[in-house]
Amino acid sequence: xxxxxxxxxxxxxxxxxxxxxxxxxxxxTDYPTVTSAxxxxxxxxxxxxxxxxxxxxxxxGNGSGWGQAFGANLTHANATLxxxxxxxxxxxxxxxxxxxxHIGTNRDGYQxxxxxxxxxxxxxxxxxxxxxxxxxxxxxxxxxINFKTVFMFDAVNPxxxxxxxxxxxxxxxxxxxxxxxxxxxxxxxFASYRAVVKADGGYYAGNLNTFNVSDAVVATTDFTxxxxxxxxxxxxxxxxxxxxxxxxxxxxxxxxxxxxxxxVVGSALTGITQVGFLLDTTANINTGGYNFGVxxxxxxxxxxxxxxxxxxxxxxxxxxxxxxxxxxx
Length: 329
Prior knowledge:
Layout: H1 4-16, E1 19-27, H2 36-39, E2 80-81, E3 86-89, E4 92-95, E5 101-107, E6 112-116, E7 124-128, H3 133-138, E8 145-154, E9 163-164, E10 170-177, E11 188-199, E12 202-205, E13 209-210, E14 219-226, E15 231-236, E16 263-265, E17 272-283, E18 290-303, H4 308-328
Antiparallel strand pairs: 1-18, 2-5, 3-4, 5-8, 6-7, 7-18, 8-17, 9-18, 10-14, 10-18, 11-12, 11-13, 11-17, 12-15, 15-16
């Protein structure tokens, strides 16, 4: 019977990291925004047929109302977008029905900001509008007007499950780089994507992925990284209520990643409560603007708590051990 405690300890350790799950998944093919015609669709008898019209509200928009809505930092009063929220621009009222998302932006100018659109419009994206020669010349940073936006989503039941990365846990994304960014138009000189997680109250950035924005193609690129073996760069606390432009003296520049900063291997991260991504793009002089966004995003993690089935197994072994002890007596 002296082997029983060792057996139970091994079972508990095994069960504590047995339930690897997808803790967040979103696809903009489900359209976080749609046109009013799609939102308000009805059948011949006037009954609603749209899966989106569930809020008891009226949608009169073209799906782009939230397209460029977040120019302030994370934790700003308007930094959280929840299902059913509506935004009115002129006579257009557009409804958001994706998952709750927390959005923050750093930028050199007011020509661009973070926002949400359907998959054809970039999904969870940065939208950049016209950049004139005068605006370009007036920007003190030089080399183009830069925009950074972070999108953070809540993990499933983070208050109950202590998430970490182990084994083959991955972070995956599909990122869209439209024709209007590069090619002969050269509207953008830089674009990048990287995953971000919030663990034990701090934020960490994953691998940097950059794009060849000179390509004259409309492209979607898939990225997958092993979350447990990735060296995540510590960002500290990127939350800030200061929304100053990046070149201002009081700008926190909290979305600028120090590539030589402190790193933590993914398997050492615990208490993961949010997952998301950071988009970064630099605009040249252009007319018409461009979109740059994530269309699909998924994260797997492992909860460091026993599954219900593991509890049942342990309880069964304890009951059996109790019977064996009584029989010996």
